[in-house]
C-alpha cells in the first residue's frame, strides 16, 4: 500500500451514525428490556439449545493444534512466508523467504505437519488463503497496534461515584487520537475508555492520558526558570475545551476559560465556523444530556496547543459481565515513543540538558549513565539546566 494513502486512511473516521440522544436511548432500551423480561416466552429445552449451538468440537481441534509446539510453529512460519511473498521485492524479504522455505521443507517431512497441511488444503473457502490483492490491505505493525495494558485498568477509588440512575446502565466507549509530531495532518490512536452515561465530559478528560500533562513544573526565581520539579505521574491540565455538536464546553476554572478564548479566536480570525459556548462546564455536563454520533470525531484542546480527537466507538447497555465499579475504564493505551540517548544512541534518555557547551545540541537528551560519566560542568559561570524526562510504566 502506498505510504501516503496508508496515513490518510488511518486518519479518516466514519461514516458517522445518526444522532443518538443518550437519555432517550437509555429510557427506550430500559423499557424494552423490562417488556421482554415480563412477557412469558415458550418453554424450551435449554440443554438442547446449548448442545445445538455448541462449538466444542471446533474448539478442541483448534486447541490441539495450538498446544502442539511443532504445529503452531509451522503455522506461524507459513503465515510469515505467505505475507513475505506478497511484499517480496526487496532482498531482505527474499532472504527471509528462502530461510523460511528451507525450514518449511524440513517440517513437511513430518507426518503431523503433512496431515495438518492436507486438512488446510481441503478447506473449500476461496478466501482462506491470502490472495495477491491482499497486499493492498496488509502493512507492518505500528506503535499504535500494541497495547501497554495487560488487563483492564480501573479509575482511582477517590473519583466521584456516578449516580445510580437509569443513565448509569448505559456504557459509552471512546477512543482518543492525537496528532503526530512529524505531520499535523496524521492522527494516531492514543487510548480507549469505557464510561457510564451518568459521568461527565470532565471525567473523560481527566482519565485520558497525554504526554503534555506530564511536563515537569518550572521552578522560578525572580521570574526566571532555574530548575524543574520531577514529575511522579500525570497531573491535571491548566485548561481545556471540548467541542461537541458546535458547542464548546470549557473547564470553568476561570471566569474566562478555554471556551471563551476559542470563541474570541474564531472572531479575530473571522472564521465561518459557528460555535457557541455551553452554559455548563465540562465537569457539570453528563454524557446522558448530549446527543452523540458514533464514528464522528469531536475536537479537544488543552495545554495551549495540544489537540486531540475523541471518537465514540459504541453506545450500549451494561452487560451482567461488565465491571460494576471503577469507571471510567481504560481498555487500551498506546506505548509512549521514547527518545534514545544522543550520546550512546542505545538507551532511552532520562535527562534533557540545556545550556551545556560540551554537548552538540541544546537541549540534548542523555541517559543517566552518559550524564554521570560527563561529570559536572567545569565552568561554573555556565547556566546549565537539567530537566528530568517523564517516567513511564507498564500496567
TrEMBL record:
Entry keywords, A to Z: DNA-binding, Nucleus, Transcription, Transcription regulation
Molecular function in Gene Ontology: bent DNA binding; core promoter sequence-specific DNA binding; RNA polymerase II cis-regulatory region sequence-specific DNA binding; RNA polymerase III type 3 promoter sequence-specific DNA binding
Principal cellular location given in the protein's record: nucleus
Pfam families in the record: SNAPC3 (PF12251)
Regions that span the bilayer: none
Subcellular location: Nucleus
Domain of life: Eukaryota
Record GO biological process: snRNA transcription by RNA polymerase II; snRNA transcription by RNA polymerase III
GO cellular component terms, A-Z: nucleus; snRNA-activating protein complex
Annotated family: Belongs to the SNAPC3/SRD2 family.
Protein name as catalogued: snRNA-activating protein of 50kDa MW C terminal-domain-containing protein
Taxonomic lineage: Eukaryota, Fungi, Dikarya, Basidiomycota, Agaricomycotina
Amino acid at each position: 500500500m502506498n505510504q501516503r494513502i496508508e496515513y490518510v486512511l488511518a486518519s479518516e473516521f466514519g461514516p458517522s451514525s445518526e444522532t443518538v440522544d443518550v437519555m432517550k436511548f437509555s429510557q427506550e432500551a430500559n423499557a424494552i428490556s423490562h417488556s421482554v423480561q415480563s412477557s412469558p416466552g415458550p418453554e424450551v429445552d435449554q440443554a438442547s439449545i446449548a448442545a445445538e449451538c455448541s462449538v466444542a468440537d471446533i474448539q478442541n481441534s483448534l486447541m490441539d493444534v495450538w498446544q502442539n509446539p511443532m504445529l503452531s510453529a509451522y503455522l506461524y512460519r507459513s503465515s510469515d512466508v505467505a505475507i513475505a511473498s506478497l511484499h517480496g521485492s526487496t532482498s531482505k524479504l527474499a532472504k527471509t523467504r528462502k530461510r523460511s522455505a528451507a525450514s518449511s521443507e524440513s517440517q513437511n517431512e513430518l507426518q503431523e505437519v503433512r496431515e495438518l497441511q492436507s486438512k488446510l488444503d481441503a478447506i473449500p473457502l476461496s478466501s482462506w488463503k491470502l490472495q495477491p490483492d491482499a497486499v493492498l490491505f496488509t502493512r507492518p505493525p505500528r506503535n499504535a497496534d500494541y497495547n501497554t495494558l495487560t488487563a483492564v485498568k480501573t479509575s482511582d477509588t477517590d473519583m466521584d461515584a456516578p449516580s445510580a440512575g437509569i443513565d448509569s446502565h448505559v456504557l459509552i466507549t471512546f477512543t482518543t487520537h492525537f496528532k503526530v509530531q512529524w505531520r499535523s495532518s496524521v492522527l494516531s490512536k492514543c487510548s480507549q475508555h469505557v464510561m457510564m452515561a451518568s459521568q461527565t465530559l470532565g471525567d473523560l478528560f481527566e482519565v485520558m492520558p497525554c504526554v503534555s500533562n506530564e511536563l515537569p513544573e518550572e521552578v522560578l526565581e525572580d521570574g526566571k526558570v532555574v530548575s524543574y520539579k520531577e514529575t511522579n505521574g500525570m497531573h491535571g491540565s491548566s485548561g481545556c475545551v471540548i467541542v461537541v455538536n458546535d458547542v464548546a464546553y470549557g473547564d470553568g476554572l476561570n471566569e474566562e476559560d478555554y471556551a471563551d478564548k476559542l470563541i474570541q479566536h474564531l472572531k479575530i480570525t473571522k472564521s465561518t465556523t459557528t460555535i457557541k459556548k455551553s452554559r455548563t462546564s465540562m465537569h457539570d455536563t453528563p454524557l446522558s444530556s448530549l446527543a452523540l454520533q458514533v464514528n464522528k470525531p469531536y475536537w479537544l484542546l488543552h495545554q495551549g496547543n495540544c489537540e486531540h480527537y475523541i471518537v465514540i466507538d459504541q453506545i450500549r447497555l451494561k452487560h451482567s459481565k461488565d465491571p460494576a465499579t471503577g469507571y471510567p475504564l481504560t481498555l487500551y493505551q498506546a506505548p509512549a515513543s521514547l527518545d534514545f540517548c544522543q550520546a550512546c544512541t542505545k538507551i532511552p534518555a532520562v535527562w534533557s540538558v540545556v545550556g551545556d557547551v560540551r554537548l552538540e545540541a541544546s537541549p540534548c537528551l542523555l541517559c543517566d549513565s552518559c550524564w554521570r560519566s560527563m561529570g559536572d560542568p567545569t565552568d561554573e559561570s555556565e547556566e546549565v539546566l537539567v530537566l528530568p524526562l517523564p517516567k513511564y510504566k507498564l500496567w
